[in-house]
Amino acid sequence: MLSPWETILSCKTPQAWIDKAVSSLEVLLLDHAHCEKKAATTAISLIHRYPDKNLAKYLSPLAREELLHFEQVLKLIKKEGFHYRNLRSGTYAKELYEASSPDEPNRLKDSLLICALIEARSCERFNSLLDFLPSSLSTFYSKLHEAESRHCDLYLNIYTEIFNEDWHDRLLPLSQVEASLINRSDPLFRFHSGI
Ligand SMILES: [Fe+2]
Ligand SMILES: [Fe+2]
Question: In terms of pTM, does the model score above 0.90?
């Protein structure tokens, strides 16, 4: 049976992005560290924005796990001989959120689905990189893959639990926007960038 992360994405990562990633390991790792940090802050901000939805029981452990990933990527950056620094952010997440509804409760529905899509894309990117990375990185990425797959499931399950409705119809247009960001040419190489 396919995992949700395999079914909710509307396209695969283009080979051109994989080729660029393999020759840009420093930026890949630095931006990956940023993504883990951002995943934690997004979870915390959802807890903060919707105190009535009891999200802390799911998203506080998730935020902790993302921060653990952040620390693990920091160690790897050091081990590979790179220095941690901030990079200009890619526009992927920002543009995805621009496709979400401005009004509640649809805004929360879209936020949960966008989080699931971002987790799914992370999984798909870890997978697509495995055969092309040095073994020091591919072992780490295959471990992270399991966690991010679980996070994708979690966001979809939170949606079902809160709204008691099927998410597939609402997800489809967001998934198509996501795929268009992945397939477009992108001047800035980042973990979730286009080509
Ligand atoms: Fe993570
Ligand atoms: Fe995650």
Answer: yes
